[in-house]
Amino acid sequence: MSNPGVYADLVKIPSDFLKKDYPETQQIEVTENVSGYPVSLINTLTRKQDGSVLFNFNPKINLGKQFQNGLLSVNVDTAKNAKGELTFNTLAPGLKAVLTVSVKGNKKSGGGGGSSGPLQGRLALHHNTSFFGGCCRMRSKLIIDPSSLLSSSSQVDSNSAQTELQYKKDAVALTAIIRSNKKFTASAVFGYQQFSLGLLANVNAQSQEVEGLEGTLLYRREGLLIGLSPKNKGQNLAITLFDRVNARLAIGADINVDMKKLDAVPKLTIGSQYFVDSKSFLKVKVDQDLRIGLGYTVPVNDTTKVQLGLSVNSKDLSVEGKHTFGFNVTLAL
Q: Checking DSSP bridges between strand 249-258 and strand 267-275, what pairing results, if any?
């Protein structure tokens, strides 16, 4: 069989199927590719449910083969959040590395205040390359010192960094995530014919404790995916299903059972997708609380796509039911 993929992607298809394409905010996204350069600029304006407005600027630079098919992405917004991500897709045969550094805007003035953000990464890279027809040789060296990251995050607890390494070979996929808060995640996925088995552990290196342990058994065949995932050291059981019934119809479901409270109602979401044509589709989902989600995606032309979303509390159709309406307009210039 082909490589089963990393642990985070095992049940990504049914998860995205039930979560994506149901906008609850009003958002306009404009992507511009800079002519003559491997650069794209993504500008996003979002009005949230609380009425606040957020602007996000996200330039992306394709670093090319000279830097192991690298991609640099920087994200900044008007809430003073910032995130930088450096990806090397072919750091070595089968090896991918992702370095992420995040800074979250402090809500409090003065030093040491504010909220904490996800901190990921430390990576050392030595690279020799030639370019411009071989007339120039460059030696690049990228070193991020773990101790400096930890020192920085101790002074400003809203800063974070992490490194993620992914290795794929044959029917095995391994992942290691090292965080500056001394927490470590390791996962392994093994594939055999139509089955995949994934195991994941979250370890706190400072306390030397295993904080999380879970696994996923996945059955996959053409158009069908069924996943069984014991989580939180067996305290929860997640069952996922996705089936592309035919060219027009797809269905999916997600069931979460609390193994300590078997008499409680499981968390349940079921959904379906109807393809009007190859690019337009209608989605419907409902959860255990009878909240109904509707989503409609349609391309206006070759450069513009519109998504509409409506979430309705069928138990309370009054204003107090907290219904939401959202849209995404995506333009590619």
A: antiparallel
